[in-house]
């Protein structure tokens, strides 16, 4: 019966050893207690003895690393052959832990780009209600979305319009929603820091209206007024470089490019993505870009680089029937152009009153950075170009 | 890491520590080593016996021949006495490296470490420095054996949480031959007390390329030893190798695990952990120590506090069982963390 | 420095007692040699420390104790346990990590215990057991039983602070404890003469005003004699004693320790020439009370007992996984079983 030669333990620290040398040859007759091989461990070269009389059979080769309880060889009877490889398996099954079935791992990452801060409770609830966290404003510390915000959002989505879902008619009234509160706080901060002043000017818009049609036909895409105003403002900033600046912590920084933002209303608020080089980018590209940005804004997939930068903003309430307003600066920008309604208005010209298409422009500027006259000059640049039909129609 | 290049020399864990000690002792005559049987056969050079053991892990082998019995000192079994003496020597110009044979014996000299070595610089208003290194062995085996037993309750513990807990005491845990040499050298050059915990059973996992020249592995810096995107696994000592084993298994399931080797428990490199969790959003901390007041739970608390918003799942810890270390091999295998526990933790985090 | 000498016991132990002594020494020798064989042929028992060569110390001391007396042992504790009549089958099963082991597989070689046999434990933390023995003596004193306790320690532990604290306390409180130092010359590889300022451990006794004697540890009767006197002193309320037994361990500190790296071969040879079993046999041959045949029979019976013990260990079941978690705390209201 084959007797296995098993790797002994050589005390502490050694869980394994290397077969250094077979003292007795494979097939040699050996006696019980005789040293048959040497094992090298970190500490020393250790002798290993034969457990029985018989014929030595090597299993582990010289140089092999063997763990304690590992098989080194066998002592066989005459004519006996060594057992098959798994004969000396001494492994006992250690009770394992059953693997959990993987359910579909829906997105192992959070969305790339912006981190949405939300508590685990909020996330869980949002998952249950299939609410995209990016559409929720957080009322928790640091703007973190907490469970209550999701509950509120869920209430809104069920069809109760806007804030009325949480309005009560009697008693103390409903508190501001988290979203409105955060918008309010942001705006208040701006107003507290900047010294805002709005100047207005009525500009003839006939050329603009015509150009829009012409461009749309030529470029074969719808052309929003905003695209034209972006170009106008960009070019005007180029001509008035003292206003093409940003101000942060009382430090002025001149901008090398005329990057202009445009405001888009989205559920829950306003975003203002930026279009780079609004003064000289290819117009058709600008239009395409704006369309893309608008889609992204509406589907809440704007990335942070889309909404950072820019030295001025165009905000258009004209489509909603507003003529003149006082837009609030978009920090750290020093100017913001509000565009009002394009409509026929009675204009006196050469003593007679005529119906002319005009548009009111409302420019808010930061008085820390500049004064009324330079700001007026900026409006002047815009107005001049708006009157140049050729300029507008030849935009490419 | 083994290399196919046969000219890259590979050292074992113990050999790497030996080299680190040796090079520092050559560089600085104030470095001395002391402990029980760190040479062996003390006082018997005249009979031809010297360096009988060179330390239980052979980490101090050959040092007494090169540096003499004045700098390589075998001690009686007097932990409180000789660790305390090492503190005094460190305060007065030497840079001792003292060995406490097993971390389980730390109780015999705990006062000298936590009350004296760790606090001296602070209590004396910064006017006293204790550039002391304490080397000690820890850990259980982790391989499956079918019967018999291990080193049992008094020779298998990890206990490093009781050391990392102490302000003023740095605690490092090498995991490979490369970082063992580098951390040993860093510990000796550090001007304050550093405990170096050397795992008893790293074996071949730790063997690898070690440059011949002296080099530092910085204290207080963790290392990302495997990049991944879906979950962060972190551990120290043998647990790093366990995490890598788990990461291999996870890769087969298309789960990409990032593995962090903590290397220093105190001061902990939080930033590396936070950065990793920011990317992966999941954390499993693997610790060979028992769970209550452990390093694993400390890390979990820090991440929960400071990287809360990056988490997509609760932080999981995989630790030893909350029991003394049992002797019987089959029980010890259940006591110590296992790869399947790490896998189960990750599966729970990824639904 | 005056070393008090204990009064010599009158006479020799009875033939019955001597028979017991031989039987125990022989069993220890066989257990350890069998264990060594098992270790060297691959049984993974964890770190073990053979008592081979020192049998007369454990047996000589325990022969002078009553069943109710306590001992505290060291990492090299198999001899002490067998001397206190712990079942070798349960010890072997413990080493095999089986559920039927003396510690149910949870302690191993370095923690083997049978509290019902008066053993406070085998303990690898140097000096820890000594404090426990002192505590047992304190307990006996408070409860007014007539028990005594024996604190075994190696000469290496003489450097541990606990020893000094314990000897001082035992002396000031006159506790019924006997400190037995087994001086086998080496603490791992560190020689006694290097690590100890005084040439004998027994020299320290006078510092604590207790009697200290040096005994030939290879002579079981000499050990017995000294212990009888110390026990009488302790039981009568006169306080502790220190007995230093000069002895020798034939093999290394633990398995895998190569003694050629720190011990001269002639020293090892000389030690084996004073083998305690051989000395006992020779004395019996010359003056009895036991015939050689009787001694051979005892050896044969012990061999059979060892065969049975190994068989028992091999075939015993492993502990269940749940045992990892049991006995961490004691349930309130009763002793945990």
Could you explain the architecture of this structure?
The complex is a heterotrimer of chains A (396), B (351) and C (337). In chain A, 33% of the residues are buried. Chain A folds into three domains: 3-82, RNA polymerase II/Efflux pump adaptor protein, barrel-sandwich hybrid domain (OB fold (Dihydrolipoamide Acetyltransferase, E2P), Beta Barrel); 120-183, Dihydrolipoamide Transferase, CATH 4.10.320; 195-393, Chloramphenicol acetyltransferase-like domain (Chloramphenicol Acetyltransferase, 2-Layer Sandwich), CATH 3.30.559.10. By secondary structure, chain A is of the alpha+beta class. Chain A has helices spanning 120-129, 147-157, 178-193, 206-219, 225-239, 283-298, 372-387, 389-393; strands at 3-6, 16-22, 29-30, 35-40, 45-49, 54-58, 65-67, 71-76, 196-204, 245-248, 251-254, 260-262, 264-266, 269-271, 274-275, 312-316, 335-349, 352-366. In chain A, the strands form five sheets. Chain A has a six-stranded mixed sheet. Chain A is built from eight helices and 18 strands. Chain B is α/β, with parallel strands linked by helices. Chain B folds into two domains: 10-209, Thiamin diphosphate (ThDP)-binding fold, Pyr/PP domains (Rossmann fold), CATH 3.40.50; 223-349, Rossmann fold (3-Layer(aba) Sandwich), CATH 3.40.50.920. Helices cover 34% and strands 17% of the residues of chain B. In chain B, strand 10, helix 8 and strand 11 form a beta-alpha-beta unit. In chain B, helix 1 runs parallel beside helix 7 (177-189) and helix 8 packs across helix 12 (339-349). Chain B is globular and about 70 Å long. With 337 residues, chain C is an alpha/beta fold. Helix content of chain C is 42%, strand content 9%. Chain C has eleven helices and seven strands. Chain C has helices at 15-40, 55-63, 78-83, 88-95, 128-143, 161-173, 192-195, 220-235, 265-273, 276-287, 292-315; strands at residues 70-72, 149-154, 177-183, 186-187, 190-191, 212-216, 241-246. A five-stranded parallel sheet of chain C has the order 1-2-3-7-6. A two-stranded antiparallel ribbon of chain C has the order 4-5. In chain C, a hairpin with a 2-residue loop joins strand 4 and strand 5. Chains B and C meet through helix 3 and helix 11 of B and strand 5 and helix 7 of C.
